[in-house]
């Protein structure tokens, strides 16, 4: 009996020991499993890495002036998509410019939450978009951008001025810069050189006003003045050359610039039709030989060369007390709503200083914003491009205000015509122009 009890005691003790060992092994295995779960498996690492490098798609809105430019943009997009090493795919969506309706369509879409990540843009729209907090602030991206200094500082200043802040919300892309066309043969006949100062320009306008056949009538007018809509751009160069500006058009300097403009007309150095001459008229007058000089940009250079061959050239509007020329613009913006701002900056910087800048400006004839591209032979061997590039550091735009459109289309041409015809003085004209633009 005692043997049986002893045997049962030993058997119970054995099962107890087995249970303890099993429990310890179970706990050890659970801890090991927990430890393994804390360290990602190879598969999990691959999945995490895949998430970090997940391809990014950007929607880009733009307009194109013709089918050639439309195809060009799609080619640029394709090349960017194939060559960038960051997994970025740009999807280009073209919209018509529609006389500026593009900007309204873009604004409506952005306000409704259905706009693109990135879009081609005009500076005149900046106040509206920035006031509604639609545009991404680019300061941080540009400050750390290796190509920052490849763009003329003046262009950044223009972008800031457009927003009314000290920050950048618009990325430069391409420009049109006004310069002075002139006829070398007429300059030679007048015995003068290309003017290098504002005073020399005023003298050249007088000296190239010629009676070529001695009949007492003017056959060539020194300056093809634009008095109709659009004429405020070349006119602005005269105002600034005297030291004036658009912020205070009632200053003595600004009034003197207007007086110079009036004197050119009153002295017969511009065609009698100048008060109503628009773009078509100043180009036709220059091409017919009726004027020795007129102001425009590279958009008309091909037809000038076709008309005159080597007997046409250009120079930047010369410096006086101040210096200014008008700049047309097409830029890009990144929307605050996009979740891919870094990828978006890769795209707009490619258009600003990369291969996209080269391809677009070479094909369209627009002036590059990249100094590297400006230095390419294609641009340096083109005298009209060189005159444009020379004007970039002092180029500018009119103040962007609620009144600007009406001022350009109606107030400036009507007021200037009255001044040219002697109905009002230069001082009265500048007072009216200032009050209308600045609503005083």
How are the SSEs ordered, and which strands pair?
Layout: H1 2-38, H2 42-52, E1 56-62, H3 67-83, E2 88-94, H4 101-111, E3 118-121, H5 126-131, H6 139-143, H7 153-163, E4 171-177, E5 179-182, H8 184-190, H9 198-207, H10 232-241, H11 252-266, H12 279-287, E6 293-296, H13 301-308, E7 313-315, E8 325-334, H14 341-353, H15 355-364, E9 367-368, H16 371-374, H17 377-380, H18 383-391, E10 395-396, H19 404-420, H20 426-438
Parallel strand pairs: 1-2, 1-3, 8-10
Antiparallel strand pairs: 3-8, 4-8, 4-9, 5-6, 5-7
InterPro entries: Bact_solute-bd_prot1, SBP
Signal peptide: 1-19
Biased composition (Acidic residues): 41-55
Structural account:
By secondary structure, the protein is α/β, with parallel strands linked by helices. The protein has two domains: 56-176 and 327-396, 3-Layer(aba) Sandwich (D-Maltodextrin-Binding Protein, domain 2), CATH 3.40.190.10; 179-316 and 401-438, Periplasmic binding protein-like II (D-Maltodextrin-Binding Protein, domain 2, 3-Layer(aba) Sandwich). Helix content is 52%, strand content 11%. It is built from 20 helices and ten strands. The strands form two sheets. Strands 1, 2, 3, 4, 8, 9 and 10 form a seven-stranded mixed beta sheet that branches. It has a three-stranded antiparallel beta sheet with strand order 6-5-7. Residues 1-52 have low confidence and may be disordered.
């Amino acid at each position: 009996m005692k043997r049986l009890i002893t045997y049962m005691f030993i058997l119970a003790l054995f099962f107890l020991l087995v249970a303890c060992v099993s429990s310890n092994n179970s706990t050890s295995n659970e801890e090991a499993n927990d430890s393994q779960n804390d360290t990602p498996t190879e598969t999990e690492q691959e999945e995490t890495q895949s998430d970090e490098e997940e391809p990014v798609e950007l929607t880009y809105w733009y307009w194109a002036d013709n089918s050639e430019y439309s195809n060009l943009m799609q080619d640029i997009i394709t090349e960017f998509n194939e060559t960038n090493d960051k997994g970025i795919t740009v999807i280009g969506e073209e919209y018509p410019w529609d006389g500026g309706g593009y900007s309204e369509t873009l604004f409506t879409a952005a306000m409704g939450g259905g706009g693109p990540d990135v879009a081609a843009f005009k500076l005149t729209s900046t106040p509206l978009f920035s006031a509604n907090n639609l545009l991404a602030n680019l300061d941080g991206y540009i400050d750390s951008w290796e190509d920052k200094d490849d763009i003329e500082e003046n262009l950044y200043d223009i972008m800031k001025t457009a927003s009314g802040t000290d920050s950048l919300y618009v990325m430069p892309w391409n420009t049109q810069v006004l310069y002075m066309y002139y006829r070398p043969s007429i300059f030679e006949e007048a015995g003068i050189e290309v003017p290098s100062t504002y005073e020399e320009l005023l003298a050249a306008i007088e000296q190239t006003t010629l009676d070529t056949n001695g009949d007492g009538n003017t056959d060539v007018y020194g300056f093809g003045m634009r008095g109709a809509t659009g004429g405020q751009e070349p006119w602005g160069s005269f105002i600034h050359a005297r030291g004036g500006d658009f912020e205070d058009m009632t200053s003595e300097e600004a009034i003197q610039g207007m007086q110079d403009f009036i004197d050119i007309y009153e002295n017969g150095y511009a065609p009698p039709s100048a008060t109503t001459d628009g773009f078509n008229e100043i180009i036709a007058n220059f091409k017919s030989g009726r004027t020795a000089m007129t102001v425009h940009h590279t958009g008309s250079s091909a037809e000038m060369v076709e008309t005159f061959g080597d007997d046409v050239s250009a120079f930047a509007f010369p410096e006086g007390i101040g210096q200014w020329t008008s700049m047309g613009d097409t830029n890009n913006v990144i929307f605050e709503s996009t979740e891919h701002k870094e990828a978006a900056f890769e795209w707009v910087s490619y258009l600003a200083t990369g291969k996209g800048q080269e391809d677009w400006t070479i094909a369209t004839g627009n002036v590059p914003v990249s100094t590297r591209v400006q230095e390419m032979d294609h641009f340096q061997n083109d005298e009209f491009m060189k005159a444009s590039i020379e004007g970039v550091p002092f180029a500018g735009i009119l103040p962007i205000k609620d009144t600007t459109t009406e001022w350009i289309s109606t107030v400036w041409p009507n007021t200037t015509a009255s001044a040219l015809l002697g109905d009002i003085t230069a001082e009265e004209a500048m007072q009216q122009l200032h009050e209308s633009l600045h609503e005083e």
